[in-house]
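User: Hey, my collaborator sent me this sequence without any context and asked if I could get a structure. I don't really work with proteins. Can you help?
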Amino acid sequence: MEREEIFESKKYLIKRIKKFTKDLSLTEEELDVLGFIAYLQPINSKKLTELLGFEASSCISSLECKNLIMVACHHWDDDSELYGATKNFLTLAHLKSISCLPAPDGKIPRYSIEKRKEPNRTFLESIDIHGFKCFKNKTHINFSPELNAIIGPNKVGKSSILKAIKWCFSKSKPEINDFFTGSEDIATMDFAEVKLTISNGKKNEANFTIKRRIKKSRESKILEERFYNENRIDYSELDKRLDLNTLYKSFFLFDEIDLSIDDVNYPVFIDMLNHVKNEKQCIFVTRKKETCKESDTMIGVTAENDGLPKIIEVKM
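Assistant: No problem. I've predicted the 3D structure and written it out in structure-token form, which is a compact way to encode the shape of the chain:
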């Protein structure tokens, strides 16, 4: 954002939170520093001083004591402290996340503007899993182009969804534990298949599918097949046609990386997540409600009476 835009946005933001910060007795200088940190985070004291035209260090110390800003990280070059807004600031400002800060006109949050854009990028539209890991029955899951939160109790197959996506791209040799292993009541499968339906983000071009299938032969050998748009193809030819490594990097797969993030750093993580999902599709296993609130689709995984996973999709 331009400096003038920041000033206009900051003025609107400060009006919004001033009535909620009366007990904190913030000075005009502190409000200026708070506004700039909110919009430009992570930012260091030197840069703030240059932008504001006065020494910002004392205001920074005061805002830290009032739990409105925090040290979010350190600069990779000079190791200077970079500041960001806290969860307490978001609460006072009645903001869902930093991405919901008022736009320069003071009316529409920037996040709403970004979200209206049609996705013009490659993303995973859906997955079909059958006989892979814990998925004995054929299971279909749809994904949104942005953030997909996979939630549910332990040991019901959440991480297996991410493994199935990776397995479809992988060149690794198939193994026995790729099959549904069964239990005392349910027989082991001798067949496993994962199919991905992928959109290339171009309206005039059709989606395409890639599929990996394995099965056990009578001699207990594992036979493998690959498919592109339901036509059998060698892995090398598939890789040559699609550049699988580049295609796999078109989306992010996260498995509970937010679990160890503390409350102080969580707002920074949410802001980063909103930035990332506007660049690439994210498929995210999580247990945190805050992460789920940022998602476009929630994929609930639970267990049936027989212990097999069941999928419940919710569009946000």
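In plain terms: Residues 3-18 form the longest helix (16 residues). You can pass these tokens on to your collaborator as they are.
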